[in-house]
Write a structure and sequence with these properties.
CATH class of the largest domain: Alpha Beta
Helix content: 40-55%
Bound molecules: pyridoxal-5'-phosphate
Mean pLDDT: 96
Strand content: 5-15%
Number of helices: 13
Radius of gyration: 21 Å
Order of helices and strands: HEHHEHEHEHEHEHEHEHHEEHEEEH
CATH architecture of the largest domain: 3-Layer(aba) Sandwich
């Protein structure tokens, strides 16, 4: 009856089962919803912008209203990045942007190369498009950097099985490792993509949460590669992270590439966008003001992320065998621990004994044990309490 694009209902893992049965309130250090994180920002001025009377008229532009695309272009200009409105397509979210790009680039059965470790968003999206994800390794021994040679290994594996690679995804900065791609790494990847005939999709939703850029780190791949013009590159961004407004459902794609390939890609993307017209007019009309409001909101969150990371580093200094990765970018902290206890067992024990929820590394496809991933979003007092419980739970296994 049903296609294989959706999984069979009701699948549970040991962690979700344990959570459902947990008898006490849980301190959740996996929470990443910015609208319930108690940030000291009042959303009402942003929400008031949605009442613009022009929103009463429906006159859609498939790629997004020009005024909204200009607002995205100004957002990038404010960050020193050139992205003209003619190369911007609005979507309801970056997840939708992925869906549209997979439709644009991949036929059913084609492969998309994705990084590991990274955020496990794409399995469901790829399943829905009938495309297959093939992982390329980000080596832990080189701070989880993107190596074109490892991407090429993955592309070779795909070719050997008689399939086609449609695109490679980079998450820049990566979630949860915080690693950014360097200009040299992107140059090598771009040459590989051009040579092998696939596109680059660069997920840059954490653009506004960069704390330790190194010289040569790339912020917006579509802008960086514009001059070289070797491969088609699509950079993704959106309100959900940059303005902490995931509920308003607006994201975007910035495209670059050699002509005439770029023009054709944009025309085909416009056709996909026209089939959905999914971005509501009020949010598009409000976009200039929402992005301005979002600047302040993101600033408040950056202060919290830094403060919580410092709390974690201080708390874990009592356990020298545990390494906390520096907060180079993003909303997460990655902990590396001696693998004396299986990740899943450790996470279940922290839940049972400390009423504390953290993510096991395998959730993000870390290559081996043992890693934990924590969200740095919770309120400072909650995070301090969570750190104390974590330290107590980790002491117990010494
Ligand atoms: C790397 C990355 N990309 C995309 C998303 C989803 O963003 P959106 O809400 O715009 O779909 C997330 C969500 O956490 C993410 O971590």
């Amino acid at each position: 009856m049903f296609s294989t694009r959706t999984p069979a209902p009701g699948a549970r893992n040991r962690l979700t089962t344990a959570l459902d049965a947990h008898p006490r309130p849980v301190l959740d250090l996996t929470a990443t919803n910015p609208t319930t994180a108690g940030l000291p920002v009042d959303p009402s001025p942003a929400l008031a912008l949605l009442a613009d009377g022009r929103g009463g008229v429906y006159s859609p532009d498939p790629c997004g209203l020009l005024s909204a695309r200009e607002a995205v272009s100004s957002y990038y200009a404010g960050r020193g990045v050139d992205a003209g409105p003619g190369r911007i397509v609005l979507t309801a979210s970056s997840s939708e942007a992925y869906g549209w790009l997979f439709k644009l680039l991949a036929a059913p059965g084609d492969a998309i190369l994705v990084p590991a470790p990274s955020y496990p968003l794409l399995d469901a999206l790829a399943g829905l498009e009938g495309v297959e994800l093939v992982r390329y390794r980000l080596p832990s021994e080189d701070r989880w950097a993107v190596h074109a040679s490892l991407v090429e290994d993955a592309a070779d594996r795909v070719a050997a099985s008689g399939r086609r690679v449609a695109a490679v995804v980079v998450v820049n900065p990566n979630n949860p490792t915080g690693t950014s791609i360097s200009r040299a790494e992107l140059g090598a990847l771009s040459s590989l993509a051009a040579r092998r005939g696939f596109a680059i999709v660069s997920d840059e939703v954490f653009l506004d949460y960069r704390f330790e850029d190194r010289p040569g780190d790339v912020r917006v791949a579509a802008a960086e590669t514009q001059a070289a013009g070797e491969a088609l590159v699509f950079s993704l961004g959106g309100l959900s992270k940059s303005a902490l407004l995931p509920q308003l459902k607006l994201g975007w794609i910035v495209a670059s590439g050699p002509s005439p390939l770029l023009a054709e890609a944009l025309e085909r993307l416009e056709w996909i966008a026209d089939s959905y017209l999914s971005v509501a007019s009020p949010v598009q009309l409000a976009l200039p003001g929402l992005l301005a409001w979002g600047d302040a909101a993101a600033g408040a969150l950056r202060a919290r992320l830094l403060s919580n990371h410092a709390t974690l580093v201080e708390g874990l200094s009592a356990l020298p065998e545990v390494t906390v990765t520096p907060l180079s970018a993003g909303w997460s902290a990655v902990l590396r621990l001696p693998a004396v206890e299986a990740e899943e067992g450790l996470v279940l024990r922290l839940l049972a004994q400390e009423d504390l929820l953290v993510h096991p590394g395998y959730f993000f496809d870390f290559p081996r044990e043992a890693f934990l991933v924590l969200s740095l979003l919770p309120e400072e007092a909650t995070f301090r309490e969570g750190t104390a419980r974590l330290v107590r739970g980790l002491f117990a296994r010494r």
